[in-house]
Every structure is written in structure tokens, then in C-alpha cells.
Amino acid sequence: MECHNDEAELAQTLSALVAGAVEGVVRDVIVLDHGSTDGSARVADAAGCRFLTDWDLKDVVQSARGDWLLLLEPGARPLAGWVDAVTDHVAIDLKPARFAASRNHRRSFLQRIGRRSLLEQGYLVSKRTAAAGLRPGMALADIANGRAVRELVAEIVPTWAVKAMRVKTQN
Predict the structure, then answer these.
(1) FRET label pair with 168: which of 1, 58, 68, 148, CA 20 to 30 Å apart?
(2) Confidence of residue 118 (pLDDT cuts 50, 70, 90)
(3) If DSSP states are collapsed to H, E and C, what string results for the chain?
(4) Residue 13 has pLDDT above 70, yes or no
(5) For residue 9, which of 171, 1, 22, 27 has the smallest C-alpha distance?
(6) Sheet containing 97-101: which strands, arranged edge to edge?
(7) Which of 1, 65, 83 is nearest to 36 (CA)?
(8) How far apart are CA 23 and CA 114, in angstroms?
(9) Strand pairing of 77-78 and 30-33?
(10) What does the buried/exposed string (b/e) look like for 60-72 if buried means 16 or more CB atoms within 10 Å of the residue's CB?
């Protein structure tokens, strides 16, 4: 994940990844920070993540412990069944994949015609595929650009929906 002052969102996503860590699907979590001044570093440290403030993306990808990478936005939450969906996919398919959009969190018509984040539905890619496409100056989202993907049978709550829910509860 890449973050910048995403303390609350980071905590949401990390809590959703616990099930994957318990099952051995999530072997490590790497957070790439863009100068956060909030508690993002403390949240990542408490969860046992690697929190990097200076990095080379090629080195980060090579240092990941697993053979597959799950790229997420801070705040995104894979929903029930995601561990099995990821496990099944990596066992039988080499293509990258994305989570299905949550049926309970749909964008309005105007939001749907606008530009969406490449990581809105997460991105599951083999480490080998990700490394082959790396170029200097790339961000994580750039890894997901222009590749054909499969859709996982599990859903994800995107970051924009998590932020919208928090705003509603604060008002």
C-alpha cells in the first residue's frame, strides 16, 4: 500500500488482512509512505508492517516474501471469503485479478463516468509479472495499468466508500 496521512484508513485495511495472515496467505505487508505526519507509522508498526519512507519500487517488489502481491489502497476492505478466493486464484491462474466491486457500495452515475483509481478494486499480481513491468518512477497503481485481469469471486469495499461512511457517521 502507498499512503499519505491515512492513519484511519490504514487501520481499516490492516484489520481486514488479519484473516489472510492467520491462513498464511498474507506473509508480510509493506506500506510505502509519502511523508505522513499523522499516526500512519505507529499503526503500521503495531500491525507488524514494514513502513518505508524511502524506497525503490523494484527493490520493494523483490523483497516481498510471497510469490504474489496484493496491492490495495489504504481504507479498502476485502470482504468475507477473500482468503479462499485469492488462494483458489493463485493455485490455478497466472493472470492478475481484481476483487469484485461490493454490491452494497455502488458509485453514483456521475461518479462512474469519472476516472477511477487503478487500485479501487485491489490488484492481485504475481511478483514475476509485477517485476517485469517495472520502470523508474512508477507508483503501485502503475503496476495495474493496462493489464488484462480476472475477477475474483470475493468483493471489496473501496476506499471511497469507507471514507464516505466515516463522513456520514461524523455528521
Answers:
(1) 1
(2) confident
(3) CEECCCHHHHHHHHHHHHHHHHCCCCCCCEEEECCCCCCHHHHHHHCCCEEECCCCHHHHHHHCCCCEEEECCCCCEECCCHHHHHHHHHHHCCCCEEEEECCCCCCCHHHHHCCCCCCCCCEEEEHHHHHHCCCCCCCHHHHCCCCCCEEEEEEEECHHHHHHHHHHHHC
(4) yes
(5) 1
(6) 68-71, 123-126, 97-101, 150-157, 77-78
(7) 1
(8) 37
(9) unpaired
(10) bbeebeeebbbbb
Distance CA 140, CA 9 (A): 17
Q: Which of 90, 5, 95, 17 is CA-nearest to residue 42?
A: 5
Do 126 and 38 touch, CB atoms closer than 8 A? no
Question: For residue 166, what pLDDT band results from cuts at 50, 70 and 90?
Answer: low
Q: What is the pLDDT of residue 168?
A: 55
Distance, C-alpha 68 to centroid of its chain: 12
In contact, 53 and 35? CB cutoff 8 Å:
yes
The second-level CATH assignment, the architecture, of 2-170 is: Alpha-Beta Complex (3.90)
pLDDT tens profile 124-133 = 999 999 999 8
pLDDT of residue 117: 77
- CA dist., res. 68 & res. 129, Å (int): 9
